[in-house]
Design goal:
Two copies of one chain form a homodimer.
Chain A: H1 2-8, H2 12-19, H3 26-39, H4 45-51, E1 57-62, H5 66-69, H6 73-88, E2 92-96, H7 101-112, E3 118-122, H8 129-137, E4 141-144, E5 156-159, H9 161-173, E6 180-185, H10 190-203, E7 212-215, H11 220-233, E8 239-242, H12 245-257, E9 267-269, H13 275-279, E10 286-287, H14 291-307, E11 315-318, E12 322-323
Parallel strand pairs in A: 1-2, 1-3, 3-4, 4-5, 5-11, 6-7, 6-8, 8-9
Antiparallel strand pairs in A: 10-12
């Protein structure tokens, strides 16, 4: 700015007025604009925002194994939905990858260091240091999904995983299946644990814990393994609830290997209604997750806190209806 | 800091010395540390870094339709590779979504506003405003892939798309196929254009432009359409080079619909060696893209510019060998 003022032959105050839209004479404005072009001045927005104590940026963090991020079309859709709303509010969404303890520490410093005004956290778990930090420093935030023990006044956006799991299991039961198993994934997340609960509730006295294969992640390769385990334990299995569409796609692979026809011999249902659901043979009956809308709502809840005027809802649950196709 | 100094009964200068590791008496240090805990002071790192004129953050931007980001396992792998190296250098990678003109403008301000020290740009195109801006403001940067007309001293990391496309087409020819077509995607990117060039070079005088179906994106759904177009134009087609694995997976779907067996009736090859390649039936013969390594190298090239000591190579080309499976 010093260089601009010198080149234009005006004071720094006059340059400042031009930059911030205040009054200056037409001559001074022309001289300053020419000087700006000449010296290649670019306003340091980071400095300006700092003076105003805001960064105009919102962090987006998915606390998932990054390898899984690549496979999970939901997280991308949540991110795009959130970006859509933040963009309209002129907020820069910055998404931060966490792949190591070193990342966790650095991201913690970033979140508490004035670089963002808020954060959206996907798949938070109760013992996660990022989750604790956000509660501690009081950063305006919103969870997508919620840690099981969350009780710290941070709102969340999600779906009724239990209810939807119950609904799709009931629908599978209604097709006349007798021996129904589940490939249950990610039981350390609310989504994974709740889907298992819904499955158990729908089966009631027919629930058989031996017919639950547990896998760590919502992942195709684990779906292949989970289905093999179920076939080993119960060759007469005729119905399967896979905890996600990717898991269901893996299960279909194992059923094909084992020579079982779908849906004739085994009916299978998934969860997510992601791009996987339409690509499998046959296309999956599943639960529709409104992932983009989840992202949009999470962004709204962060903006609401930043505006600091209206009361912030504790949580928003969006509809997640069953979509019935031909895999069961 | 004012509050900390008041609570500890010392000057702000003394607090500053404790925070920055200078000498203070043991008593003063104890008092200040207690005061810090009491008032809940968190150092504003954004302010400190600003004073030092660095943000310790590197932007990561993929100039692709965000809907495609969700489908493309390569971009995620590039991102994870880049994060790995940046993390070791204690740099925060911030990834920025561009989904609208509004996003382009805001991201441009972010990049030029002091929020990042450098940037990694994936899939830059020549007319992209972000590409122009980066060249203009001289931000330390690295491209993954390169805009066709790039001549601005910005290094890039990539693979030899032309050479690999030539190699896999030659291999497909060697299986005895007579009527080979290509589903060519993203011809406005260097990767897409180069793969078509390699295909044409390998076929030489056998190249028939009627057997090239053009689609806009590396995408499953377009792969389905591209293959239908080729089958319409040449029912005797017996070999297909799909510009990516996702496109090949879509093409397999069309071939199944049309009752063609793979590889017996039609041999098909892809490009990427992404998770798609192992999930199709049969698994895809393809070109291996070392996506994580591409990300790692791109991060190294940005760090090299930030250190400002050693010369920066103009480009790094990584090996991308043919991986032969059973789809051809």
């Amino acid at each position: 700015m010093h260089d601009v003022a010198a080149a234009a032959g005006v004071s720094r105050g006059t340059v400042n007025r031009v930059l911030n839209g205040g009054y200056v004479s037409a001559d001074a404005r022309t001289a300053i604009e020419a000087a700006i072009a000449m010296v290649g001045y670019v306003p340091n927005t980071a400095a300006r925002n700092l003076a105003r104590r805001r960064s105009q940026a919102i962090g987006f963090i998915a606390l998932e194994d990054p390898a899984l991020l690549l496979e999970d079309p939901n997280i991308g859709a949540i991110m795009i939905g959130a970006n859509e709303i933040l963009s309209l509010a002129d907020q820069q969404m910055v998404s931060l990858v966490i792949d190591s303890d070193r990342d966790t520490q650095r991201v913690s410093r970033y979140l508490s260091g004035g670089f963002v005004d808020g954060a959206i956290i996907v798949s938070a778990r109760s013992h996660d240091p990022i989750t604790r930090l956000i509660a501690q420093i009081g950063l305006p935030a919103c969870f997508v999904g919620h840690p099981p023990d969350l009780d710290r006044g941070i709102p969340y956006v999600g779906i009724d995983n239990t209810g939807s799991a119950r609904a799709i299991t009931a629908r599978l039961l209604a097709t006349g299946r007798r021996r129904i198993g589940m490939i249950a994934a990610a039981l350390d997340r609310d989504s994974g644990a709740d889907r298992l609960t819904g499955f158990r509730e729908a089966l009631g006295s027919h629930f058989d814990p031996a017919l639950v294969a547990e896998i760590p992640l919502y992942d195709y390769a684990y779906g292949v393994k989970g289905m093999r385990a179920l076939l080993d334990r119960e060759p007469l299995i005729d119905g399967v609830f896979a905890a996600s569409d990717a898991v269901a796609a893996g299960a279909l692979e194992s059923l094909r290997e084992a020579g079982r026809r779908v849906p004739e011999d085994v009916g299978i249902v998934g969860f997510d209604d992601s791009s996987w659901a339409l690509r499998t043979q046959p296309p999956l009956s599943t639960v529709h997750q409104p992932a983009r809308d989840v992202g949009r709502n999470a962004a709204e809840l962060v903006l609401l806190q930043l505006r600091g005027k209206d009361p912030v809802p504790e949580s928003i649950l969006l509809d997640s209806p069953v979509v019935w196709r031909t895999s069961a």
